[in-house]
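Q: Hi! First time doing this. I have a protein sequence and I read that you can turn it into a structure. Is that right? Here it is:
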Amino acid sequence: MKILFAESHDLDYQDPLGSHQYIRLFHADGHSCLWLGPAISPLHLFKADRVNRHRFKVWKEGIRKVEGIDWHIPLTLMPYYNLPLLRSRYAGRSHYRYCLPPVKQSLRQAGFGEVDILWCAGPVAVSLLELIPHRVSCFRLADRFDQFSRIPQSVVALQEELIAKADVVLATSRELCEYARRIKQDAVFYLPNGVSEFFFRDCGPAPADFPAGFKKVAVFVGTIDAWFDCELLEYAADKMEDFHFLLIGAVKDKITVRRLARLSLKKNFTLLGRREHAAVPQYLRAATVGIIPFQLTPLTHAINPIKYFEYLACGLPVVASPMRELLALGGALETYTDAPGFCRALRRAAEKKTEISAGLIEYAGAHTWQERYAQVKRILEERF
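A: Yes, that's right. Below is the predicted 3D structure, encoded as structure tokens:
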């Protein structure tokens, strides 16, 4: 089969998301796959940072191969941004209609003028339903896009249009599944995130930059954005001097950057920044507890954190805010409602780690990306 993934992240993104896992599994299964996006625009010329320079290079190449998978970045004259004239529903629906060269032409030259599966990961892909002939369309709904301040509010209309028109909707959380079913009565499936097989393997000693001199390390791995509870962590670092708090990941929010800079002055706090995805299990296996200290918002209640399964696969007990999706998963979890409760939950989790680690790993084993892929294949094959 030929499968086109319409995406908003780079194919060679350092921290693989769900679509990265699925396209690699489809490719390994012998299917021809092309990753379309994220689109660049003339506006990016005024923001020539490392990411945009990289994307312009991929656009100039036409098609780039990454692990045997085709990758094409279009240049759109109608970018969808939260700026005047560009935040409208029309701009979102026209994102792929005004490209240089035309996206249909580029895909046809790459052998993807017609596809078996059109996999959509964002609302602007709605125009591709009309532009690209396909047998089955699939919308993987993984976020409350309307809760991101950087995304125009017209995204709600685009998202609902794509849900209604797609042949299949795969929702990663119960909140998103219920939302999609209010728009589309059938062909909406609950399909949470998973964990890569290499998180289960023995990965050797702790990395050289892992905090030394602490018996207990609470670790967070992932993107750090506005919903990260810095005040909670500051309280815990002050009250729990026998714990070291280790954050691994890129910080996306400017206010959060400043708050973490203050935290970094503490002896029991370290912000390492992003690390290679393949190296993450080394840090997790050397830690004591995995944490997900997110503020409770409509956005966080709707997410299904990949890191939850990654922590469990490495035998780590998890302490997290009581987000709806995590509570519903039914796995091992310590939750809290305030800062003192967070500290108590950390101590409970640390005390029972040795006792429960084997059971955590077994639980995670039923939630691998391979298991999720098998479900996706069954769902899609029923549509052919």
